[in-house]
Specification:
Elements (H helix, E strand, L loop, with lengths): L6 E3 L3 H42 L4 H33 E5 L3 E6 L4 H7 L2 E4 L3 E6 L4 E5 L18 E4 L5 H11 L8
């Protein structure tokens, strides 16, 4: 492998299409919930006014109305999470070359991508590889590198995160092979 031809890891077509199907399904369900609330709102409001006019208890009607609003809010949250997941999977690129590894999220704004874990680490800087709930995490130790180059602590990225890529085993083996300062804790 030479620096002129880096290896590019990104999600496979099957992984991207599965995320796309989950995204489309969640949008269909979310829109259905909102349509049902809009269709049933006049009936719920009429039942509430009728119960108030006859002097009946309106507690259960308010509970039903609150549950419908909570379902709409939850569906909106799930819609935004599915959109963010699809954007992260679609835009994920993990690049490796002789110098190090780089994670890019091309489908989200740059500040958000950095907050998630985009950036670059040299092979010498990587000191741990972990699997968290959603992301694979590469932690870097900029202080452990024996360079005489000036350090920029604010701009220095010390943690890289990526969601999923095709040929994950090959990427992990490449990280294990090239990272000289990788430590394993028990």
């Amino acid at each position: 492998m030479s620096t002129a031809t880096p290896l590019v890891f990104r999600p496979s077509l099957a992984q991207r299409s599965l995320v796309g199907l989950l995204f489309a399904g969640s949008w269909i369900v979310g829109i259905r919930v909102i349509v049902l609330l809009i269709q049933n709102f006049p009936r719920m409001y009429a039942n509430l006014k009728l119960a108030q006019a006859t002097g009946d208890s309106t507690a259960w009607l308010w509970v039903g109305f609150g549950a419908a609003i909570a379902a709409c809010l939850l569906s909106g949250l799930l819609l935004s999470l599915s959109l963010m997941t699809m954007l992260l999977v679609e835009g994920t690129h993990v690049l490796t070359d002789e110098m190090g590894i780089s994670v890019e999220y091309l489908a989200v704004p740059r500040r958000f991508a950095r907050w998630i874990g985009a950036g670059r680490l040299s092979w010498k800087e990587i000191h741990s590889l972990e699997k968290h709930r959603l992301f694979f995490v590469l932690r870097g130790d900029a202080a452990g590198e024996e360079d005489s180059s000036p350090k920029l602590p604010i701009a220095q990225v010390s943690t890289l995160r990526f969601l999923l890529v095709d040929e994950l085993e090959r990427l992990v083996l490449l990280i294990l092979e090239r990272s000289t300062n990788l430590r394993f804790e028990e």
